[in-house]
Amino acid sequence: MEQNMMLAYYAAGAGALALLFALFTLASILKEDMGTPKMREISEAVHEGAMAYLNRQYKTLIPFALIIFVLLWAAQYFVEQQPGSHLPVGPASAISFLVGACLSAVAGYLGMTSTTKSNARTAEAARSHGLAKALNVSFRAGAVMGLSVAGLGLLGVSVLYIIFGNPLIINSFAFGASAIAFFARVGGGIYTKAADVGADLVGKVEAGIPEDDPRNPAVIADNVGDNVGDTAGMGADLFESYAATTIAAMLIGNTLFGFPGIIFPLLVGAIGIVAAIIGTFFVRTSEDGNPQAALNVGLWVTNILTAAGTFFLAKAIFVGETAAIATGVFMAVLAGLIVNVAVGYLTELYTGTGKPSVTRIAEASKSGPATNVIHGLAVGMESTFIPMLVFAGAIYFAFWSVGSAAPADKAGLWAIYGIAMAAMGMLSSAGMVVAMDSFGPVADNAGGIAEMAELPPEVRVKTDKLDAVGNTTAAIAKGFAIGSAALTALALFSAYVDGVKHKFGLEEFVVNMTEPMVLVGIFIGGAVPFLVGSQTMRAVGEAAYGMVEEVRRQFREIPGLLEGKPGAKADYARCVDIATRSAISKMIAPGIVAVTAPVLVGFLLGAKALAGFLGGLTTVGVLLALFLANAGGAWDNAKKWIEQGNLGGKKSEPHKAAVVGDTVGDPCKDTSGPAMNPLIKVAGTISLILGPLLTRL
């Protein structure tokens, strides 16, 4: 066992390697030139605003985290424990929860520091060296976030397993990560959309000034919001996915195969990290090259190396009586990697600029905002069907690939491990996917700095080229997050079922849809995503209202601001503060719903009702996430397609209608839609803890 446990140290070492590489990359970025004093001033304003938001967010969450920490520690004295069994409560579980929460915050700080310190440097690289250098700087900034997410996730899980030696004890690590991620995703989404909607409606629509114009008081808040949402929010989202999937796979593997089943997902994560580090060196382009193609090469290299490494790993780990499923487990991981590619392609198909779905929305804008919104809703609804088939196909293939190779009397049980490994395969490339996503806000901010610092027009052309790619990678990352939520939820559900069986001493735990309590759970679970969606949508509307009124006030009361007269300066800090206060105050209610709903269902209605709740929540949550994210992305790119000169271009009637549609889509794709992912996973991770504690079936 001592020799075997050394493998866990290898996994922890891979996590540490990712962190060291991220810190080395960050140090190299900070050596780049920030440009003119004006560029430096704007960049520092964005950095200070982003850090102020993060500090206030985490200070708000400290009491919440401490309450759960105390409850997990004290619960051991109120729950009956059978001799020889382990309950997911007590000091070890409480510590694991706190570690998960803290590492999620650390990942957010590292990523936010990198992206907000890189925006001016990217703009200066575009000005002094060209597109290739600008891509290099902005992608390296994203890689800091991506490798921090994967590295901290794997390091945290591995070290806790080495210390406590039982995946059941440390599953609260995933709960800590998911609880923080929900608040980070919702709060970040509210912040970024409040600032974006306020800046667009008053600046672009009412005042007719360009995006990122320094006269707009909300422009700094808008740039801060890009980082808060797509860096800290997305990073926290995928950090919890990474942790939850790894621990769920370890729990299932421990029940079925013992140590080999535990160590395999940890080592798959290690292979994925090494592959992502190697993949970063392949993201290169020429001055007239295609940045999207360069990023795709990095992702393909990561996926191919992960697949190759997993093949040999499966052959080395699964030996003896489990040797027959080694190839099947590898095929399950491969299915997860294929879902990565498929989700990205489908997201681009429905949301890409110039794609038929998007141009139809743009054409509908000729008859006004109403038809634009109607066509956008139709695209969002249509876009859910094929991705759900892809998820279903991957689940079936993973189940079949392991089950068909297993002994007949163990086929069904062993096949569940295949599903968990499909989720692990998908998350193994998280380092590269988060890097591609976080690169987007850097490019977007660089364009804003070029505009506000009055750099030559050709600089903005280069940063806009990167920004357009960033919009695509952000959409792909949202699809990746949704897909990871779907597969992670199934792995968590399987682990929950395993915990209930052990609790009640059952050979099987059957969830029968004809049982009234199961149906009650399904209906409640299916309704919760809509409740949370409505809360987050309303929060954006209310926060944006405050931002709109503030921008109007400054245009009205600051002499010469709108006209751009010398000496007239907008109060950027006031808008940053409004967005921060609104986001922090309005993220609490959805968070309470997310955390308390599964607890109430489990203890009041029982284990089967909670199983139904998880099924209903997952199905509706994934569908709603796809619908909202893709509809919002399609509305956004329909507006951009018109701005490229089609249908009359900017300030035309179709453009005005498309701006309205984009404004509707903003909270869909950046707040309510992304909130579904951590909602699904926080319910699953809480249920892992609840399963062995429930008192009734």
UniProtKB/TrEMBL annotation:
Catalyzed reactions: Na(+)(in) + diphosphate + H2O = Na(+)(out) + 2 phosphate + H(+)
Annotated positions for site Determinant of potassium dependence? A474
Tell me where in or outside the cell this protein is found.
Answer: Cell membrane; Endomembrane system
Q: What is its EC number?
A: 7.2.3.1
The biological process GO terms on file are: sodium ion transport
Q: Which cofactor does it need?
A: Mg(2+)
Give the GO molecular function terms: diphosphate hydrolysis-driven proton transmembrane transporter activity; inorganic diphosphate phosphatase activity; magnesium ion binding; potassium ion binding
Q: Which HAMAP family match?
A: PPase_energized_pump
Q: Which family does it belong to?
A: Belongs to the H(+)-translocating pyrophosphatase (TC 3.A.10) family. K(+)-stimulated subfamily.
Question: Function, please?
Answer: Sodium pump that utilizes the energy of pyrophosphate hydrolysis as the driving force for Na(+) movement across the membrane.
Task: Please name the PANTHER family in this protein's record.
Answer: K(+)-INSENSITIVE PYROPHOSPHATE-ENERGIZED PROTON PUMP
Q: Share what the entry says about its subunit structure, partners included.
A: Homodimer.
What's the protein called, per UniProt? Answer: Putative K(+)-stimulated pyrophosphate-energized sodium pump
